[in-house]
Amino acid sequence: MTLGPVMIDLIGTEITPAERDMLLHPNTGGVILFTRNFESIEQLQALTSEIHALRNPHLLIAVDHEGGRVQRFHDGFTRLPAMATFGQLYRNNKDEAKDLAEKTGWLMASECLATGIDFSFAPILDLGHGISGVIGDRAFDKSPDVISILAHEFMRGMKRAGMAATGKHFPGHGSVKEDSHVGHPVDQRRLADIMMEDIIPFERMIDYGLAAIMPAHVVYPQVDDKAAGYSERWLQNILRQQLHFEGVIFSDDLSMEAAAPAGDYTDRAKQALNAGCDMVLVCNHSTEAKQVLQGLGDYTDPASAMRLVRMHGQPRFSREELFATDEWKAITRRLKPLTDSPELELDV
Q1: CATH code for the domain in which residue 275 is found
Q2: Is residue 138 part of a domain?
Q3: 229-237 — which CB contacts under 8 Å span 24+ positions?
Q4: pLDDT for the residue numbered 258
């Protein structure tokens, strides 16, 4: 059985019988975990092991574990700084910022992999203009050059740990105020302007070997009247053909408000897949997720299935082995002063 094109979520810390049936559906290819799915390290490891044992090749298990306001797991995991921390440090000490970003990418990936997570949807490649509240300090910096440098280091650390990186939110969410989770953001800039700014980190990261990209639920009417995740022009003409991206394209969550204009959930999934997405996310709506699985029928895309398999994690350590390494001990000490002030988690 190949990996299907749909990533779903779970309601709690264990798999229900109904969820098991959905996970075994041939159109399912992955699971995204949230804070509600985490109770303890032992419970999380049991859950991921059970999910992986269901299928061969095993279902992908993903999480949003960026750092700062977006970190799903806490007890037993190192608290990670917001990515803007590295941008601020870069202004004063470039070498220190690059080294810390690489090691933080390694740490995040290593801790997730050691508990059965295949990958985190990271790093953020959006520009931190201070316009978008939902992006905010999740962005490394406002400079495309600085973002490219630091995101590359973060990705290098992830890769060294055995995890593939996902850049988001293509072609850039940082220049719109509206939050696509609850509104309908529209970016009125011309394609030439976007290419000269927001696209730069994506283009460079593609050259560096970026494995996956997640498009934004943002409409850029000077380019296309559809949101980027539904746009063949953005995903096929620009991302695949012009930027030569050969990796995985994940949709953003189809339950977000900005995804609604495409119709019901099955219509949204079909439009995203037809535009060029390899896998679509349906979160927090189990009934609608089931409808999508059924509505896609006998969906097959061998090229997408081959790309998706490359997202499987390759853990280098067990948790016990990881915590015994000098590198883990050293980086956790370096990060602690950067994460002492509490932050509310951003529910995205």
Answers
A1: 3.20.20.300
A2: yes
A3: 229/259, 229/272, 229/275, 229/277, 230/262, 230/268, 230/271, 230/272, 230/275, 231/275, 232/274, 232/275, 232/276, 234/170, 234/171, 234/275, 235/275, 235/276, 235/277, 236/275, 236/276
A4: 60
How many distinct structural domains can be found in the chain? 1
Among residues 64, 252, 253, 278, which one is catalytic? Answer: 252
pLDDT of 344 reads: 53
| Residue of 181, 184, 217, 312 marked active site | 181
266 in any annotated domain: yes
CA 333, distance to chain mean position in Å, is 26
Residues spanned by the domain of 252: 6-46+57-328
At residue 112, what are phi and psi to the nearest 5 degrees? -70, -45
pLDDT at 174 (0 to 100)? 86
Q: Is residue 347 a part of any domain in this protein?
A: no
Predicted pLDDT at 296: 97
In a domain, 157, yes or no: yes
Asked whether residue 26 carries a pLDDT value surpassing 70, the answer given is yes
152 is a catalytic site residue: no
Q: What is the pLDDT of residues 87-132, one digit of tens each?
A: 999 999 999 999 999 999 999 999 999 999 999 999 999 999 877 7
Active site residue 198: no
